């Protein structure tokens, strides 16, 4: 049976219908899984970042072992692969890619964006990372900062802890979180040096 | 066999893909290359077997750093790749 | 070209999905617009999650199924189409659904 030759919508309807009618799975389980994914979003990642910026002990726990640190915030990653967080510093800038597929911290950040899954991103992120960031996102990494590309292809999922902009001293976690974008958490953009 | 942080390791220059259906987590561009163990990330069941629903041994997983320019000379000197690699793909360099 | 300057991508064993640094894709456009998932995408995603929870479909099996797609199908398919093809393939292999059942359901 050549699946790719079939109409995909019909294939999905037939396959999904079969699994339901045979009792392999139930409609409620599907709804529950979609709802769990809908609860994940870059805003969750941003909240984790903001807490790490204001609380040095939390930051240390997050960098040491991210999954329990994130669960401390009431965000449960049960069943998801272990999560690692890498910190950007003046010396190192981290970028996440999955050249083999599209591994992404989806239980925290939600569905991966289309660009992350594209062949262009997957190939160029390792071959010309500085050029990719500059031309696609306008992100310039200074020559003295090491670019570290994480090819996330195995059992962990990875997120970047961006650098906190200057001029944000005394801000609330909520206000800080508002600065952080999805692209900052993957390392294709950086926050402004100062706000 | 176990690799401490800082150990220089070589990734096996193996191509199981040529021998039949395979599921490999080691990207092609680091095979046969030498890198440095950054840390041990724990141990996981071998995905090469799990992918075919075969019994799978639990294998240590390491974060290994590679110099980018040693693989693609146009990449900036000093920039690195950091990749999760299972122990059975590594040998002491 | 001497062997030491051969690009990694020329290794005969490299699979199509192993795209890191592959010249053919370096200039492929990268669509940075935000795209909401379609109903199709959401349904495929949910099926994969629930089959995984039931122990019927691991990430490793899903990836193996995607990686086994011919290169031209891989490139021509959307992300969630690849997931669907892999999921159906592996469920057929395991007998969770049979080809006869699927044919009847498609008719």
From TrEMBL, chain A:
Keywords: Metal-binding. Signal peptide: none annotated. InterPro entries: CN_Hdrase_a/SCN_Hdrase_g_sf, CN_Hdrtase_a/SCN_Hdrlase_g. SUPFAM superfamilies: Nitrile hydratase alpha chain. Transmembrane segments: none annotated. Residues 9-189 form the Nitrile hydratase alpha/Thiocyanate hydrolase gamma domain. It comes from the Bacteria. GO terms for molecular function: catalytic activity; transition metal ion binding. This is Nitrile hydratase. It comes from Rhodovarius crocodyli.
From TrEMBL, chain B:
SUPFAM superfamilies: Electron transport accessory proteins (SSF50090). It comes from the Bacteria. InterPro entries: CN_hydtase_beta_dom_C (IPR024690), Elect_transpt_acc-like_dom_sf (IPR008990). It holds the Pfam family NHase_beta_C. Residues 2-91 form the Nitrile hydratase beta subunit domain. This is Nitrile hydratase subunit beta. It comes from Rhodovarius crocodyli.
From TrEMBL, chain C:
Residues 16-105 form the Nitrile hydratase beta subunit-like N-terminal domain. InterPro entries: CN_hydtase_beta-like_N, CN_hydtase_beta_C, Elect_transpt_acc-like_dom_sf. Transmembrane segments: none annotated. It comes from the Bacteria. This is Nitrile hydratase subunit beta. It comes from Rhodovarius crocodyli.
């Amino acid at each position: 049976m050549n699946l790719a030759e079939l109409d995909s919508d019909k294939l999905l309807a037939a396959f999904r219908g079969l699994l339901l009618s045979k009792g392999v799975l139930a409609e409620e389980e599907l709804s529950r899984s979609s709802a769990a994914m809908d609860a994940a979003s870059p805003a969750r990642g941003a909240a984790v970042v903001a807490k790490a910026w204001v609380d040095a002990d939390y930051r240390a726990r997050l960098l040491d072992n991210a999954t329990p640190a994130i669960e401390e915030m009431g965000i449960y990653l049960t069943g998801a692969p272990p999560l690692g967080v890498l910190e950007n510093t003046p010396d190192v800038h981290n970028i996440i890619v999955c050249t083999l597929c599209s591994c992404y911290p989806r239980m925290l950040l939600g569905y991966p964006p289309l660009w992350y899954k594209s062949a262009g991103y997957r190939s160029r992120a390792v071959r010309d990372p500085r050029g990719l960031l500059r031309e696609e996102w306008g992100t310039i990494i200074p020559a003295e900062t090491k670019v570290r590309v994480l090819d996330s292809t195995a059992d962990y999922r990875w997120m970047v802890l961006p650098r906190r902009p200057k001029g944000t001293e005394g801000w609330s976690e909520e206000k800080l979180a508002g600065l952080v974008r999805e692209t900052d958490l993957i390392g294709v953009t950086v926050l402004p040096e100062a706000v | 066999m176990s690799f401490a942080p800082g150990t220089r390791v070589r990734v096996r220059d193996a191509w199981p893909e040529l021998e039949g259906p395979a599921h490999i987590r080691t990207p092609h561009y680091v095979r046969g290359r030498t890198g440095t163990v950054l840390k041990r990330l724990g141990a996981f069941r071998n995905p090469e077997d799990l992918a075919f629903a075969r019994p799978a041994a639990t294998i240590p997983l390491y974060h290994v750093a590679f110099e980018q320019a040693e693989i693609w000379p146009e990449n900036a000197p000093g920039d690195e790749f950091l990749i999760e690699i299972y122990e059975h793909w590594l040998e002491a360099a | 070209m001497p062997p030491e300057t051969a690009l990694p991508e020329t290794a005969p064993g490299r699979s199509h999905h192993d795209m890191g640094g592959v010249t053919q894709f370096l200039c492929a456009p990268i669509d940075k617009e935000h795209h909401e998932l379609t109903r199709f995408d959401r349904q495929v995603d949910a099926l994969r999650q629930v089959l995984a929870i039931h122990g019927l479909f691991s990430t490793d099996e899903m990836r193996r199924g995607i990686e086994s797609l011919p290169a031209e199908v891989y490139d021509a398919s959307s992300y969630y189409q690849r997931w669907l093809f892999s999921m159906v393939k592996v469920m057929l292999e395991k007998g969770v659904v049979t080809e006869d059942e699927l044919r009847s359901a498609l008719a």
